[in-house]
Structures are given as structure tokens and as C-alpha cells.
Fold this sequence. Notes:
Layout: H1 2-25, H2 32-54, H3 65-95
Helix pairs in contact: 1-2, 1-3, 2-3
Amino acid sequence: MVTDIxxxxxxxxSGAVGGNVAGAVLxxxxxxxxxxxxxxxxGGGIGGVIxxxxxxxxxxxxxxxxxxxxxxxxxxxxxxxxxxxxxxxKDAMVKA
Length: 96
């Protein structure tokens, strides 16, 4: 149970980092620091759950190197992707 919470926290934190990195790289879709962090946290959590459900990494909740790396990668990528999608949505709403 504790390792599941730690895995979730790692995914959420790396999602926030991934969202902010994506916001820094994609200036047009950036939502600001707080918006990038919120989108990243949501994306990190969702990305971790999806990849775990698909069995794309062995995130069995352990604290070994493979599980930690899987949580970091899935959180960061999920956070970056969701921040990008929210940025596109923001741009579409501004143009409309």
C-alpha cells in the first residue's frame, strides 16, 4: 500500500516536471507555470495508470530501479502530452 502511494507521488511529481518542460519547449501552448503544473500532475497520474493497465512497464508498486524509472517516464510523458493537449484546446478557444 505504501509503495503504491509512493509510485503515485513519483508519477504526479514527474508529471508536473514534464508539464513545465513541455511548456518551456512549446511556448505557444504554454499555460503558465501553474497551469503547466496542474495539467502535468493530471497527465502524470493518468499516464501512470494507463501504462500500468496496458502492462507497458512493470510498475508493480515496488521501489526497485525499473519501477521508479517507469513511474518517472510515464509521469513525465503523460504530463507533457496532457499539457500540450490543454494548450491546443486553449488556443482553439481563443481563436473561436
